[in-house]
Structure formats: structure tokens, C-alpha cells
Amino acid sequence: MFRQMLDLIEKLLTLQDRDQRLRALQTELANLPQERAAKEKLIADSAARLEKAKTRAKEIEVEKRNLETEAQAKRDSIARYRQQQLQTRKNEEYSALAHEIEAAEKVISSIEDRELELMDEAERLKPEISAAEKTHSEEKTKIELVIKSLDEKKGNLESRIGEVKKERDAATAGIDEDVLDRYQRLFKTKNGNPVVALEHEVCMGCHMKVTTQTVVQVKAHTDVIHCPQCGRMLYIPA
């Protein structure tokens, strides 16, 4: 019985090691999609910044063309008004036409001011767009390499998980079903540490001191003994 209990504890510790490794690998694998999405967002954000600058540059060109068209229309109007002034003999009509010419010239002046503002903005955007294109290209290349490594990591993790699962299945061989069931429930509720050492009469799981009777029972190796406080399976290290 003594030897059997030592073997059982050893098997449980081996099983615990495999389960801990398996859980860590599965957690790492589960986190990969979030990591990948975060990297993809960096590329998307960089592309969005570049597209925003390019869109603004296009908007400036469109507005400039519209302003040029508007300004030319006003110049044409002024030319007609001047022609009409030459043809009229009425002071009232002449003054009204002069007023229209003055209003049109003010609009043209306002348009020209706006065109200068747009030209200045367009000049400022050129280096910004150039820098954004360079940054986006560099970031995209760098992040795509990271994403590729994450995909490779995913494959490696899946492979390692498969291997550890096999080792885990092998580790359960020879363990009583009742003991295995208790172990598995404890693994879930005790943060992956169902089997812990008893050192100096203290449970290394909850760090509470156990009774002398519990220590004697653990040392006897006649059965799997649980910590009275936390319920973990106890063993005394060699």
C-alpha cells in the first residue's frame, strides 16, 4: 500500500504538470486571435490616417476647381455689366450696374483669398502624405511579419497541445476513477493546483497549518489525504 500510494502521488503530480502545461498552452492559443486583431487594427489605423490625408487633398482640388469656376462666372458677369454700362444712358441703371460690379469683385476677392488658403493647405499636406505613405508602408511590412509569426505560433501551439494531450491521457493510466474525478474537480476550483506539498505541517496550497493527525495520515501513505482547509490533495516531498 505504501509503495502504491507513492506511485499514485507521482502519477497525480505528473498529471498535474501536464494539465498545467495544457492549460497554459490553450490560454496562449485562445489569446492569439485578439493579438492578431490588435496588429491588424494598427495596419487599418495607419491606412485610415493616410487615406484621410489623401481624401483631404482631393477635397481641396475639388473646392479649388469649383472656386475657379465661380470666380470665372463672376468675371464674365463683370464683363457683361461693363458692356451694359457702356450702352446705358440712364444714371440709375449705370449706378445699379456699378453696384453689381462691386459686389462681384468682392466675391472674386473672397474666392481668391480662399484659394490662397487652400493652396497653403495643399502644400502642407504634400509632405504629410509622403510621410504617411512611408510610415504606412513600413508599419504594414513590419506588422505583417508579426502577424505571420502569430500564425506560425498558432500552428506550433496546436501541435504542442496535441502532444501534451497525448501525454496527459497517458498520465491518467492506472489512476482510480474516483481519485481522478476528485483531482479534476479540484484542478478547476483550485487554480490548477489540486496536488500540493505539505511542508512543516503547512499546506502549500492555502498556506494554513494542518493538524498533527493530518500530518500522520499523509505520512502513512495509506490513502489520498486532503487539506482540511482548502481540500487539496497533500503529499510530503521526498
Secondary structure layout plus pairing:
Blueprint (H helix, E strand, L loop, with lengths): L1 H86 L3 H81 L5 H13 L5 E5 L2 E2 L8 H9 L12 E3 L3
Parallel strand pairs: 1-3
Antiparallel strand pairs: 1-2
How many helices? The count is 4
Largest beta-sheet details: 3 strands, mixed
Task: Give the SSE string.
Answer: HHHEEHE
Q: Give the CATH architecture of the largest domain.
A: Orthogonal Bundle
Output the radius of gyration.
Answer: 40 Å
Helix content: over 70%
What is the assembly state of the chains in this entry? single chain
Write up what this structure looks like.
The protein folds into two domains: 151 residues, Helix Hairpins (Orthogonal Bundle); 63 residues, no CATH class. It starts with a helix and ends with a strand. The chain is rod-shaped. It has four helices and three strands. It has 238 residues and is mostly helical. The mean pLDDT is 95.
